[in-house]
């Protein structure tokens, strides 16, 4: 377990947001609404975009710039929130961690598993906290589902169906694996959260309905074998007009003593009466929950959901599913981890991160052991 630096002053946690696009504006609203947080700066490659996004959200008196880390250092901010595009996550977070700034970053951790491993190593080397905001974990229904699953005995099968017909326009309609790369990380992460176990192997068949507006495959049938012998099935389409599921999908969890169903919107239902115990609730909905957890972590040293070591396996599941689909064959998760580790070592330019990466004898062990320990302050 790695300790991370906490923030000990008693004022609001001052943050800079980098990336002033659609999701950046959501983060501006969310940071503004959190009483423990003060948004002091917004950066974007286009400073005009930073200014216009702040104006659109209705926030005044917030500094702007073109480099999030430089702006945060100039303002003496406590932390950085990275809402840039995935291709920029590695460079932005690596610079921030080395500048002594903890980071709350949008999913995915980075564009590739190798880059994500580099960031986990940098977090260890610098002692700074890096959390990936996996927003759909912060859902009261998912928390209830997890609670109810506790009373159906051993789980044999988690089956998620996801059928939507969105029209995004833009990059998603041109990319190679739009459903797997942009959407599937949420239910994959949800299944890990629900089961509390990690994946071992995957088969995946991607395809594109003939009427699909997407250039890449917008549908997939994915089958993960998990470490406790259970299976996680994900059948999904982004080209499915008509009777659609919720954005969280429809969940069926089948255990040895019963079944729990969740439609992704309402309270889940169980075939087993779970007594009077009350399900825990997240500290906020969606990104408000991950921001609240990030603040708590920096104040107390308590390990949050999505700490980069804990989060990476959700990205591994995405990459493994894509490779399984391309090969038309089952892929072992350990193969993906080993290849990404090798790639990360070969590409690493940061001396501290390189030393940490080289010290890992097993990536799986490093990810499960490397998360933060409750500790320390400066
Ligand atoms: N959790 C969710 O449900 C959810 C939903 C949508 C998007 N996201 C994630 O949020 C992130 C941003 O998505 P978006 O839809 O807002 O994208 P976007 O393209 O609308 O905005 C990204 C912004 O980042 C800026 N940018 C890129 N590189 C930068 C850099 N190095 N420094 C400063 N600014 C930089 C761009 O100029 C752009 O303004 C992505 O990682 C995406 O996966 C998450």
Automatic annotation (TrEMBL):
Pfam families: GFO_IDH_MocA (PF01408), GFO_IDH_MocA_C3 (PF22725)
UniProt-listed InterPro entries: Gfo/Idh/MocA-like_OxRdtase_N, Gfo/Idh/MocA_oxidrdct_glycsds, GFO_IDH_MocA-like_dom, NAD(P)-bd_dom_sf
Presence of keyword Transmembrane: no
Keywords: NAD, Oxidoreductase
UniProt domain Gfo/Idh/MocA-like oxidoreductase N-terminal: residue ranges: 14-132
Keyword NAD assigned: yes
Ranges for domain GFO/IDH/MocA-like oxidoreductase: 150-260
GO molecular function, one term: oxidoreductase activity
Record-given protein name: Predicted dehydrogenase
Organism (species): Herbiconiux ginsengi
